[in-house]
Amino acid sequence: HVGPSFQPTHPLALAPVTAPPHSVDGFVREFLRELNTSAGVTLSRSTVNDQYLSLARTVRHYLSARWLENTRKIRDTKAKMVGYLSAEFLLGRQLGNALLATDLEEIADKALASCGIDIATLRAQEVEPGLGNGGLGRLAACFIDSLATMGVPCIGYGIRYEYGIFRQTFVDGQQVEQPDTWLTLGSPWEFPHPEHAVQVDFGGHTEKYTDTDGVERSRWVPAWNVLGMPFNYMVPGYQNGQVNTLRLWSAQATKAFDLSIFNSGDYAEAVRAQTFAENITKVLYPEDSTPQGKELRLQQQYFFVACSIRDFLDRFILDGDVRSLPDRVIFQLNDTHPVIAVPELMRVLVDIEKLEWEEAWEITKKCFAYTCHTLLPEALEVWSTELLGRLLPRHLEIIYRINDEFLAEVRAAFPNDEMRARQMSIIAEYPERAVRMAYLATVAGSKVNGVAELHSQLLRDKVLHDFSEYWPEKFTNVTNGVTPRRFLRLANPGLSELITETLGTGWLTDLERLAELEPYAEDAEFRAAFVRIKAANKTRLRRLLEARDEVAVPDGHLLDVMVKRLHEYKRQSLKLLHIVSLYEQIVTGKLSADEVTPRTFVFGAKAAPGYRIAKETIHLINSVAAVVNRDPLVKDVLKVVFPSNYNVTLAETLIPAADLSEQISLAGKEASGTGNMKFALNGALTIGTDDGANVEIRKLVGDDHFFLFGLSEPEVTDLQTAGYRSHEFYESDPQLKAALDLIASGHFSGGDRGVFEPLVSNLLYDDRFMALADFRSYVDTQAKVDAYYADQDAWARSAVLNVARSGYFSSDRSMRDYIDRIWHTRPLR
Ligand code: Z57
């Protein structure tokens, strides 16, 4: 470690780091140097992987100079930073984004071509870091992209899972999970920093003692520990010379483990201990919105936030004055996963820094803000006090004290209202004593936000009602957004070029400027160009799916796409009932094939491995696809495509090709949705319920350019209260009955009625998410989609208006809202 007294004498060591020359020759030289010195091969002997790794490292060199400078500036100016704490960062491939950020796309193309290499082959070699499940993880990735682009100092803190989200394959139509070995071919984007490793303690007990100042204190006597090894990733802003940091933690065994090896003489036992430590960051939990309450998961959560808080203090609070912390950082809690950071900061301030409890609490409250991403009660994390007390005894003590003081306040404000105090308690008593992490976050956070207008309102009215009554000013909304760099410029270069030809440059970092496209919706030539681009994107998708999945996507179809995690509340089964119904009507002659608009239905979805109904739904989609796709009666009219392993990379080809975006969750269940924004931005029309950010999309693009259907949230609540019996909808709608009966008959399971019986029964006798109640409205609206699509000109006009009116959904705007309403940080310079 080089200390402050280190005085370099060579003049080159004193000069700032410089990037290689921004030219084809400069790039070639750097690339060949990487091949020779890092990969250790000559160009003629190099493999595609050697070339990809060398290309990645070459691009990295252009960024690192700016990165080092940026980090220095943040430290010197003591700028307030955002510390984005998230158990997931679903980054997607890095190469394309790095080339775009450095404005090296053309140069790299030419440089590699001159070496006889097609850059597309190298791009395809990259395995995306899938360190997230879905919306929440991808949102974190969009946010750090926007902050870098806006020059706002941010450090993302998360977990470097050795295995990210599983690779999905289908065997006989059923999902089979394979480990995601994303690191095996090398990871050129990360910088390991063993010198910044941090020790994290676990287990043991607490004890009272009298400190040297005579004060009675509590201290933690932990039983075991692991080492947190940081890996840095550069987060480049879009062509602005700003590079922020994402720091992901990996668990390793500490010296204590090594010592136990030496002492025990039991080699196998000692290695087992090593493995035990490294297990903590071994794998991403694949449940999206349904926490399993597993001990290892709590270990992951504490591990990464303990590392991150220690790291922030060590690297940015150089004078050791922890009282300045609120001026230096705001930790944004991405859902409840990092909420154990609250008692951890209290522990550091009180037990280690020896601050008074009251002062520590004032600091802690200023340092955190909490984003809630759900409305489903089963998604709200609780940790049993038994487990928490066993793994983190001191933290449990701290949580109890936070709760005692909070409840004393509540009781003072509402005397004789013990029910209220009990309802608001951070500690739940039934079915077991447990810590409600969302309540802890709400009590500790300076702000609590939902992720779309409707969601934030429902948080205030329902999920956190008592808290919003008590602290109305604490609650706010920040509607989600998506980064237009990845999801428009990189994913849809054709449309991006058309926009630049029309508006000039600048729109990519000022997305509201898309509004200037509005008049072009009336311009036949512009519409024709738009339609050509959509067709080219479909061709690109067709080629990809042919190569990737050996499926044929017909030409000239309406492309209807539903891609998202598989979840009952998202209602993939409703989409499926529509398909089965169309099929049933055509096959039985109730509907003539030439009355329906030829459509290709695309699904992409992973199911949590333990989520039975979700997995059965995947099986049913594949089974329906198999039957529909080989039936000559619907040939050329209906096609169902379900490529396996939907991920960010596939999304980037799929979304720009879509005509119709399916956003059909039961109203009041989808917190926001972000896929909905990506589709609209790429000129797909939405068929959707009045849920999450759909509400805002519809308001902005206009009712004439959005297909709304289904119950509203208040109607859902009323129907629930009145008593929902899905069976009645089945009985009273012959079309719905016929579709469900066809599935129940075994038609899609080789005559076996048992295979999909649980799914059918679930819909008929439970249907928690009211798919049957919304069926009629859905299929009627789909008929309107068909009719509208027949008017290609009107459709294109609406599609262009969707693009023109989606500027609001840039994650740059979300970041401005966080800054104004929550963080109060400023860009550098
Ligand atoms: C997750 O991806 C989301 C919520 C969760 O509670 C968990 Br756990 C994972 C999603 C919501 O379902 C989406 O509606 C939302 O758009 C996304 O988070 C980002 O806010």
Automatic annotation (TrEMBL):
What lineage, starting at the top, does this entry show?
Answer: Bacteria, Bacillati, Actinomycetota, Actinomycetes, Micrococcales
User: PANTHER family under this entry?
Assistant: GLYCOGEN PHOSPHORYLASE, GLYCOGEN PHOSPHORYLASE, LIVER FORM
Reaction(s) catalysed by this chain's protein: [(1->4)-alpha-D-glucosyl](n) + phosphate = [(1->4)-alpha-D-glucosyl](n-1) + alpha-D-glucose 1-phosphate
* Keyword check for Glycosyltransferase: yes
Q: Which cofactor does it need?
A: pyridoxal 5'-phosphate
Sorted alphabetically, the keyword list is:
Carbohydrate metabolism, Glycosyltransferase, Pyridoxal phosphate, Transferase
Question: What is its EC class?
Answer: transferase
**EC annotation from Swiss-Prot or TrEMBL:** 2.4.1.1
> What is this protein's function per UniProt?
Phosphorylase is an important allosteric enzyme in carbohydrate metabolism. Enzymes from different sources differ in their regulatory mechanisms and in their natural substrates. However, all known phosphorylases share catalytic and structural properties.
UniProt-recorded name of the protein: Alpha-1,4 glucan phosphorylase
- Does the keyword section mention RNA-binding? no
Matches recorded under InterPro entries: Glycg_phsphrylas, Glyco_trans_35, Pyridoxal_P_attach_site
UniProt lists the family membership as follows: Belongs to the glycogen phosphorylase family.
